[in-house]
Amino acid sequence: MIYAANFKTNNTKAYTKEYIDKLSNFLKANNIKDEVFVFPTFCSLDSYEVPKNLTIGAQNAYPAKNGSFTGEIGLEQIDEFGIKTLLIGHSERREIFGETQEFIAKKFNFFKELGFKIIYCIGESKEIRDEGETLEYLWSEFDGIDLEYDNLIVAYEPIWAIGTGVSATKEDIDEVLSALRTKVKAPLLYGGSVKSSNINEVLSVKDCDGVLVGSASWRVESFCDIIKEGVKA
Q1: At what angle do helices 220-230 and 13-29 cross, to 10 degrees?
Q2: pLDDT category, 162, cuts 50, 70, 90?
Q3: Structurally, how many domains does the chain consist of?
Q4: Furthest-apart CA atoms within the chain: distance in Å
Q5: How would DSSP label each residue in 91-110?
Q6: pTM beyond 0.85
Q7: Which domain CATH number covers 209?
Q8: Residue 35 CB partners (closer than 8 Å, separation 6+)
Q9: What is the β-pairing status of strands 35-39 and 54-56?
Q10: Range of the domain at 40
Q11: Catalytic residues
Q12: What pLDDT, in 10s, does the model give residues 113-122?
């Protein structure tokens, strides 16, 4: 299974170091071999000593080595910390920052050529779901994306479940992931109000290979609880 923590705009550099140290010790003490990712804020990136199954990634990056892109972070900056893992396509980048599918595909292909492991996010709004157009919308979010890329992980995060405390039902998740599996051979994650109380149900979905966790991952104890419960599933 895969467990990924997305800090978004949360946690300080000092707490991130404490978090990663505690998480590393937890993984080693409990002999957990599952793949774990942590995506801190940019100002908290550093060269951390972690067990081999724990990877530190970047939440975003501009598709350029460097240049005049005020407020962005490029390849040169994440290279400094040995970062080779990236989130792309998160709904907050699409909805809040206006990233188009064309730009997301450009970003994907730039970092694909550099061999990055990419967790690629897709998800529909409540309006689209209510109209019965979920799958058509999700397929459109793959425009320009190489689904055969060996370092691809796909994260399905219904927008209506992100940060709302309302997770999709097991049936909802199963319906979407089973449809995705017909075209996607990469690992499939679910994200959207994942917590320790529902992790077992989420991971019991046949085609679910792990989770991308938001707010429930911001405190190390909470994320460790999710992993602890998940390995029991």
Answers
A1: 30
A2: confident
A3: 1
A4: 48
A5: HHHHHTT---HHHHHHHHHH
A6: yes
A7: 3.20.20.70
A8: 1, 2, 3, 53, 55, 210
A9: parallel
A10: 2-230
A11: 90, 157
A12: 999 999 999 9
